[in-house]
Amino acid sequence: MTELTHLFKPGRLGRYPTRNMIKYGACCVSNYNTRDGFITPRELARVRVIAGTGCGIITNQGAYPDPKGEGKSYFRQVALYDDKFLPQFETIARYIHDAGSVAIQQILHAGRYGGIDLGYCVQPSVVPQTLPHFRPPREMSKDDIRRCIREHVEAAKRAIKAGFDGVEVTSFMGYLLASFNSKFTNQRTDEYGGSLENRGRFMRELIDGVKQALPEHPLIVRLNGAELMDQWGGNTEDECFELMEQAARAGVDQISVTVGWQEAPESSIGRDIAPGHWNYLATRAKKTCPGTQIAFGNRLPDPDMANDCIGRGEFDVWEVCRPLLADPQLIHKAAEGRLDEVRRCIGSLNCLSRLFRDLPYSCTMNPALGHEVEPEYAITPAAVKKKIMVIGAGPAGMEYAITAAKRGHAVTVYEKGERIGGNLYAFAAHDLARPEDLMSVVRHYEVMAKKLGVEMKFNTEANAKLMRSVLHQYDVCVVASGARIDMEAYAGIDGRERLLDALDVAHGRVQAGKRVVVIGGGKIGLVLAESLRKNGAEVTLVERDKRIAGDVMPTFKWRHTTWVEELGIPVHTSARLKRVTAEGAFIVDGKGKETLLPADSVIAAGPRKANQELFTEFEWMVDELHGCGDALMPRGMDAAIHGGYRLGVRI
Amino acid sequence: MVAGWQSVLDRHAELFSEIEEEASLAIVPRRFVAPVCDPVPMLLWVREPDGMAARTGQFGGFKALSSDLLLIANDGTLEQALSGNEPLAEIKRQLRAGGMLFMVLRRKDELREHGWEDFLEWLGMPFLGACR
């Protein structure tokens, strides 16, 4: 049983008792719905999983409140400006109540980031966008402001009519409420702009409007503890907390403390931010607004840590979302003392990378997310229990192995190395952000393999000889042998025998010198170059393409380019290797100019080639032969995990 | 100052090679930036037939500005950038450090049509944001 007594003590939100101090935060719009704002079966199936997470309070994702769609920020965001949307909201409220939780509906008017289907967005003042993704601004008139408040109130009433217990208005990340509060975007000279009191007027009128209409129902506001926009003329932290006081005085039932704007020059929730980094903002909110419940969860993915914070009185409610995308059973596992089984959110922000390309969100760690409506993605008992051999203990092989084992198959994994993880292990060892996040993937597979009885055979190379030795013992063979650096791609290069293989260097099988040239500015080359440079080597990066980081997750590209600059790694783009000598690497740029890059080690970090030879070798030696992950097509960890899972639920 | 930036633009011609003729980027000191203001001198990077040209112009507020992009600099930041070895890299650094601010005066599709994609990508603008 749990020792997380603070997290699992009963609580209260307004007049509603809650079974614990955990709130499912509406951190992400799913983009699973129709273009005109109706909730789809896909969304309903997803929300059913959310309802089952065990959180005491569950917030349904933000709906835009206006018929014009000025508040709409995401391609397939849900709407709440008309009763025609209510039937599906009623279903969602019922799911949440059936699961024993308090149901909150978020109202999300994106303001500066809205108007996705329009040619403009609305703001308190015309302050041009700083990110090209968003629409050019129009200033709201006083009539617009009054109408906007009315639309929020009507949307709130509609949510209650659908069966929700309360509503939340979000100013997260620079949405409309935030842009009224901030002096960066609010440069009005009327009663809605200027002083902090005036800038907070929109928020107070909004709170007052909703509270007057729905006095019996809890109202939550999400407010920035830090905008991270102060260098550009935004609010200071002191101003953010004064606005929180205004909200508390206006009678909100809970303040959810958030961090940062979309366009802030710093990151706030990615892998490079240490868990607990922003806790001081929650602590300050609690001190500033002692009579108001404070919810917090930014970059606080760990239930143990959240439990301790609540115990110390730093905040009242742990607001969590992304960790529950990665593992919807997180709360139940925490309650049952099974935290070692949790599949951790690794902060890759695949979810957001996809949202900003108008795609439905997905999760690196949870391949079933967004596919709950499809029975094909469910783990069900296998009709025929099989003996299965898996070649390779990287993410694809292990994901397949544990999925198959959950279905009742007997699984044995053959791994030529001495541990689980494959190239991910080497990648994590050199990662400058937070190696612990990537290592948590490896640890998860280690724990689950043990618990599920997956047999691991390390230091065992899979080849025809091995296969002959186990002939007819297995029904299925899954080749998840990963990918390698394609050294044959350098066949025409003089001195190619001097090249080092990036994976050999990353795994520590080969030592690089003190002056290094890395050929290939994709993620393998970047991670290795950054790590070698950080450890004191002089490193130069050479990339054929116009830009580096072509295969890196969009939300992490900036991080690599910044590291490369900060570490002082010279980069030669649109350049290719011509020859390697004892002096170093000779490269040729796009104009044909040859340059010597002095080096004692020249490392080939690309291109990659799938390890597919075993498919041919094993073709006539086993009943079923399948493949997954980089062995099919070198892509990356997400594709490997998702591919392993999809094969696992199918065979 | 103009000659200095011209030399920088010439050195990085490949970043601006796709930009449409007459498309421009304006650079203005932060203290002057307002929707409308009395005309003050500004620096312009304008695409001409032979490449990107550095020029001076008059800034009367961003409402009337015909440029696609506006770079706002704290006092001294631009001069500091120009005096270093890599002025464009310094601009990129200052954008992240808060010494400069970038404003987008056209829609994304218009910027793409005008050929700014390479430059914006190089600056890392599509990937900025705290939500990461």
Strand content of chain B: 25-35%
Low-confidence stretches of chain B: 127-132
Computed structural class of chain B: alpha+beta
Kindly report the oligomeric state of this protein: heterodimer
Query: H/E order of the elements of chain B?
Result: HEEEEHHEHH
Instruction: Detail the poorly predicted runs of chain A.
Output: none
Which strand order spans the largest sheet of chain A, edge to edge or round the barrel?
3-4-6-9-10-11-12-13
3D structure, described in words:
- The complex is a heterodimer of chains A (651) and B (132).
- In chain A, the strands form seven sheets. Chain A has an eight-stranded parallel barrel, surrounded by seven helices. A five-stranded parallel sheet of chain A has the order 16-15-14-17-28. A five-stranded parallel sheet of chain A has the order 19-26-20-21-22.
- Chain A contains 21 helices and 28 strands.
- The two termini of chain A are 35 Å apart.
- In chain A, helix 13 runs parallel beside helix 21 (637-650) and helix 14 packs antiparallel against helix 15 (435-452).
- Chain A has 651 residues and is of the alpha/beta class.
- With 132 residues, chain B is α+β, with helices and mostly antiparallel strands.
- In chain B, 31% of the residues lie in helices and 26% in strands.
- Chain B is built from five helices and five strands; from the N terminus they run H-E-E-E-E-H-H-E-H-H.
- Chain B has helices at residues 2-11, 77-83, 87-97, 108-113, 117-123; strands spanning 24-29, 40-48, 51-59, 69-73, 100-104.
- Chain B has a five-stranded mixed sheet.
- In chain B, helix 2 (77-83) packs antiparallel against helix 3.
- Chain B is globular.
- Chain B starts with a helix and ends in a 9-residue tail after the last helix.
- The interface between A and B is large, with 41 and 34 residues.
